[in-house]
Amino acid sequence: MNSIEQRYLRAIQARVCRNCVDLMADGTCGVHDRVCPVERNLKQILQVVNRVKSDSVEPYLLLLRREVCANCEHEDMAGECTLRNEAGCALDRYFVLIIDAIEEVRSQIRAEAQAAGAK
């Protein structure tokens, strides 16, 4: 994972993990039986969010389902996902927060590039 991806992941974790139902009382992640889908699919999630420009979450979700969920071991051939259907997928459950975090970092990076160019 490169430094930019790490920056995005830290921003996502700052928004999502503190709200996650899997967060333990001691502040650690309670997902022990599988890798968090956000971390596992970070590159694809970044591509999805960077390809969509909309005020509605629907276009983001459609592309997420096609690009990420379709390749997930928990989704069947009919597009059904037991984790998602039972609200067990953090990626699905917190996708709006993930979009917000990614767009915030993207704005920060643009602002930093503009500031550097102005020097």
- Radius of gyration from the alpha-carbon trace, in angstroms: 15 Å
- What's the helical proportion of residues? 55-70%
The number of helical runs is 7
User: Could you say which overall geometry the principal axes of the C-alpha atoms support?
Assistant: globular
Q: How big a fraction of the residues is strand?
A: under 5%
What's the short story on this structure?
The protein is an all-alpha fold.
Walk me through what this model shows:
The radius of gyration is 15 Å and the shape is globular. It is mostly helical. The longest helix has 24 residues, at 95-118. The protein is 59% helix and 0% strand. The two termini are 30 Å apart. The protein is built from seven helices and no strands. It has one domain (3-118). It has helices at residues 3-16, 37-40, 42-51, 58-67, 82-85, 90-93, 95-118.
Features of the shown structure:
119 residues, 59% helix
Q: Can you lay out the helices and strands and say which pair or pack?
A:
Layout: H1 3-16, H2 37-40, H3 42-51, H4 58-67, H5 82-85, H6 90-93, H7 95-118
